[in-house]
Amino acid sequence: MEAIYLDHAATSPMANGVVEAMIPVYKDIIGNASSVHSFGRKARQQLDTSRRVLAASVGANEKEIIFTSGGTEADNMALLGVAEANQDKGNHIITSIQEHHATLHTAEKLEKQGFRVTYLPVNEAGLVSVQDVEAALTDDTILVSIMYVNNETGVIQPVDEIGDLLKNHQAYFHTDAVQAYGLVDIDVHEQGIDLLTVSAHKIGGPKGIGFLYVKEGVKMTPVQFGGEQERKRRPGTENIPSVAGFELASNIAMETKQIRNERYQKYKQILIETFTEAGIAFSINGDQEKTVSSIMNVSFAGTNVEALLANFDLSGIAASSGSACTAGSVEPSHVLSAMYGSDSPITTNSIRFSFGLANTEDNVREAAARVASIVKRLTS
After folding, report:
1. What would the mean pLDDT of 107-115 be, rounded to a whole number?
2. Cross-referenced SUPFAM superfamilies, in alphabetical order (predicted)?
3. Is-catalytic flag, 325?
4. Of the residues 325, 330, 358, 369, which is catalytic?
5. pLDDT band, residue 326 (cuts 50/70/90)
6. Which of 51, 114, 229, 301 has its CA 20 to 30 A from that of 336?
C-alpha cells in the first residue's frame, strides 16, 4: 500500500535538485562568511548571491533580509524586536486570535512585560476584518501583526487593505507569510508591509532556515546577542549550505507558481468530487473563494480527530489537524474555535489536507477514496 503525504503545510519534501545543490556547498565552501581571507570571501559571495535572489522574490532589496532559523524565530524577532525598540512611541500591539503560536505566544510574553495586546476576532469565513483593525488602532499602537495565509484553513487575509490602512499610521505592519510564499504574489513595498516572515521548508527547501524581511528604517532591537552578522541584527555564523538550498527552492517555487496553483486547485476538486460521490457528510471550513490552492480544511460530521488521524495513518494517509491530541482527549483547534465558537463540533472533527511536491493526480485520487471509505466506516 502506497503511503500518501497530504501534510505539506506542516513541511514539504525537498524540491528536485535542492539536496544536490547543497552538497558542493557543504564540501567546498568551508569558510566563515565573516572572515576576510579567500575562504571567507567565497562563503560571503554565496551568502550575498542568495540574499539578493530571496530579496527579489518579495520585491525587497538585499539589505532588508535577515536570515533566521525559520518562521518561528522570524516571528519572534519581529514582535519582540519592534516592541522593545519602539516603546517610546507606545505600548500597544494588534494581532488576531487565529495567528500561528509563534506569534500568539510571543504576544503573550509581551503582555507580561507590560505591553497591551489586542487580539482581533475572525468571522466564520476565517477572515480578519479591516474595520476591526482600524477600530483597534490608537495613537499608542506600534505594531500590527496579521498572518498572510492561515496555516490551518488556508484563508488569505486582507493584507493589501491592512497595508493601505497603516500607511499613514506610525504602527509597523508585520505579516507571517510562511503559507503564502511561493503561491501568492508578494511585493512588500507595494503592499505596505514593513516586516515579513518566510520559511524554506514549506516550499521544498531545507529545514532550519528562513528569513525576516525588515523594511529599511524600521526600528528593531536584536533579540539574540553575539557577533555582528546580519547587519548586527541576528548574530551567529550563517548557515551557507541551507541558504544556497533556500535560494534554489525559491527559484523553483517562483518559476512553477502558476502551474502548481492550477494543479493543487485540481487536487481540491478531486477530494470534493470523491467525497460527494461517496455520500459522506462533509463541509469545507473557510471562505473557499479566498484560500490558497494548497490547503483544504474539511469537517467530517459525526467523527472525531483522534479516530480520523489514527485510521488515516493506518491506511497510509498523512494529514493533520489543528487539534492537539492528548491522552484520550482533544483540545479544539484555536483557529476553528475562533471561527465557529469553542463548543462547535467542527473544532474537533476537522482535518487539514495540504498539497505539494509529493502529490500526483493519481495519489490524491487514491487518498480521497481511502479517506471517504474510512469516514463511511466511522459514521456507519
Report:
1. 98
2. PLP-dependent transferases
3. yes
4. 325
5. very low
6. 114
